[in-house]
Amino acid sequence: MPDIDTAASKDYGIGIPYQSQGFHVKGSDHYDWGMKSRLSRIFQPKSGRTLMLAFDHGYFLGPTSGLERLDLNIPPLVPYIDVLMGTRGALRTCISPATSGDKAIALRCSSGSSVLEEDLSNECVSVDIQDAIRMNADCMALQVFIGAPHQKQTIENLSIAVNEGMKVGMPTMGVVAVGKTMERTPQYFRLATRMIAEFGAQIVKTYYCDDFETVTASCPVPIVIAGGKKLPEPEALTMCYRAISEGAAGVDMGRNIFQADHPIAMVQAVRGIVHDNLTDKQALELYKDLKK
Ligand code: R5P
């Protein structure tokens, strides 16, 4: 029986910088030019970080609050972000390639379940590499449900994307998915993020948790955090600040931006933390100023 991961039993080298060999994206020193070019569109070379806007909720939730009209809700936020994370249907119908051409695309490429189902893990690969290329995607995003009934199937989905992406230099972002009944402990997130990185994903998306620095330290590729359910703006900014301070390479935030009282002010406050090293308090002041 392999040993069970507990923070107390491991030395994560907290405080020792990742041993980079030159490229600004963790774990990607040895990739080819095209892969690094796409990663550099996602992770800004100056800060090494990224601000992704997640608006892929409709693929299993339908018209989520704040995303009732993608054509109205998303374009005003685009100037302030680095990456649009959405489905091909949302992008093709509601986002202009002309006005978002300098933004990277994280294309949602797995689906198969809906909020009506108990088990959300029964997913497939829903976009092939040819269409991802046609969409000019900079990475493919797929859910991986570690510990759920269809774990193996979702690992196979991720592996298809990684294998196809490697052929053309397109990164894959593995998204740690937590089913309705799954626990959100540091131990779980260390397990899931490390597994996804070792399957070959170049980016991992997960949730913020206690002992988060042990999650980022033990994952050999960059981690971006999802925002999760809507929080009061000060709490969302504090979560964002802590995640970045504890090693996240960015955020892929949705509801805490587009459901904020003032989404355009909120996205700029989050950007201040991600790229300009603002503290949560400074970002909150910025938010208050901008929403006046
Ligand atoms: C992850 O499972 C999906 O990409 C979600 O739609 C996305 O992560 C949600 O973002 P947020 O939790 O920040 O609203």
List the helices and strands and how they pair.
Layout: H1 33-42, E1 50-54, H2 58-61, H3 70-73, E2 83-86, H4 88-94, E3 104-108, E4 110-111, E5 124-125, H5 129-134, E6 139-144, H6 151-168, E7 172-176, H7 186-198, E8 203-206, H8 212-217, E9 223-226, H9 233-245, E10 250-253, H10 255-258, H11 263-276, H12 280-291
Helix pairs in contact: 9-11, 9-12, 11-12
The protein binds ribose-5-phosphate.
The site of ribose-5-phosphate has 13 residues, from α10.
Class by alpha and beta content = alpha/beta
Query: Level of helix content?
Result: 25-40%
**Name of the top-level CATH class:** Alpha Beta
Shape summary:
globular
Strand content: 5-15%
CATH architectural designation: Alpha-Beta Barrel
**Which sheet architecture does the biggest sheet show?**
8 strands, parallel, barrel
Order of helices and strands: HEHHEHEEEHEHEHEHEHEHHH
CATH fold call: TIM Barrel
Count of DSSP strands: 10
Whole-number mean pLDDT: 94
List low-pLDDT spans: none
Number of helices: 12
